[in-house]
Write a structure and sequence with these properties.
With 92 residues, the chain is mostly helical. It has four helices and two strands, in the order ββαααα. The relative contact order is 0.15.
C-alpha cells in the first residue's frame, strides 16, 4: 500500500467546486495561470495528492510550490498573478 492510497477522493478547489485528480491541470502544463496554480495548492493542502507527487507530476520545484502557497495565504489567489509579482514579492 502506498502512502497516498488512503487519500481523499476530492477537495474543494479555488472556485468552491469539487476538485478531483481528474480535474487537476494536465501533467504537461506549460502555461501556469492562477487557477491552475491554485488547484495544485488546494490538491496538496487537502490531501488529494502529496507535495512530492505535485513536484514530480508538474516538474515544479519545492520553492515554487511554497511561493504559490504563501501567495495564496497572504493575498488570496490574486497574489498568484505574475503581473502582480513585483507588488507582492517583497512581502512573500
Amino acid at each position: 500500500m502506498t502512502e497516498n492510497e488512503n487519500a481523499v477522493e476530492y477537495v474543494i478547489g479555488p472556485d468552491g467546486q469539487r476538485l478531483t485528480k481528474a480535474d487537476l491541470p494536465p501533467t504537461d502544463t506549460k502555461r501556469w495561470v492562477i487557477r491552475r496554480k491554485a488547484e495544485v495548492v488546494a490538491a496538496v493542502r487537502g490531501g488529494l495528492i502529496t507535495l512530492e507527487e505535485a513536484l514530480e507530476i508538474y516538474g515544479i520545484s519545492e520553492e515554487e510550490y511554497h511561493t504559490w502557497s504563501r501567495a495564496i495565504e497572504r493575498f488570496g489567489i490574486q497574489g498568484l498573478r505574475t503581473t502582480r509579482l513585483q507588488k507582492y514579492r517583497n512581502k512573500l
